[in-house]
UniProtKB/TrEMBL annotation:
The chain crosses the membrane at residues 76-100. This is Immunoglobulin V-set domain-containing protein. It comes from the Eukaryota. Keywords: Disulfide bond, Glycoprotein, Immunoglobulin domain, Membrane, Signal, Transmembrane, Transmembrane helix. The lineage of its organism: Eukaryota, Metazoa, Chordata, Craniata, Vertebrata. It holds the Pfam family V-set. It is a single-pass type I membrane protein. It is found in: Membrane. Residues 13-67 form the Immunoglobulin V-set domain.
Length: 127
C-alpha cells in the first residue's frame, strides 16, 4: 500500500520497499507512483486503485500493471540456433541416406548389366 495524506508515505515493508516513489501532483489530480529498479521477482499482475477516503463510495480510479520477464535477444538467438542446427543436421543425414541408397541401386544395376554381358559372351547362342 502506498498512502498519500498531504505527504507521500511509501511502503516501508514488503516487495516494493525502496522501489515505489511518489511522482504525482495532487493539485493536478495526478496520483502517479513510479517503480524503480524493477526486479524479475516482481513478475505478476498488480492493480493500483486510487480512492479519496471521504469519497470511498464514489468512483475508484484503477490501473492494471503486468510485470513480465522479457526474453533477451541472446536467448532467442540461442533457441533459433538450436532449432536451425537440428534441422540442418537432419537434412544432412537425410541427404546422406538418399545418396547411399541411390549409389547402391546404381551399383546393383551396373552389376546386373555386367553379369548379362558376361553371360552373353559365354553363350554365343543368346542374342
Amino acid at each position: 500500500m502506498f498512502y498519500y495524506q498531504e505527504v507521500p508515505y511509501p511502503p516501508d515493508q514488503g516487495l516494493f520497499k525502496g522501489h515505489a516513489v511518489w511522482s504525482g501532483d495532487i493539485n493536478g489530480k495526478d496520483a502517479s507512483i513510479t517503480l524503480h529498479e524493477v526486479q524479475p521477482t516482481f513478475n505478476g499482475t498488480y492493480i493500483c486503485q486510487v480512492a479519496n477516503p471521504p469519497d470511498a463510495h464514489g468512483n475508484t480510479g484503477e490501473t492494471v500493471l503486468r510485470v513480465v520477464n522479457k526474453v533477451s535477444l541472446s536467448e532467442i538467438g540461442l533457441l533459433a540456433a538450436i532449432v536451425g542446427g537440428s534441422c540442418g543436421v537432419i537434412l544432412v543425414l537425410l541427404s546422406i541416406f538418399v545418396a547411399v541408397r541411390f549409389y547402391r541401386r546404381r551399383q546393383k544395376e551396373r552389376f546386373a548389366e555386367m553379369e548379362i554381358d558376361e553371360y552373353i559372351k559365354k553363350e554365343p547362342t543368346v542374342w
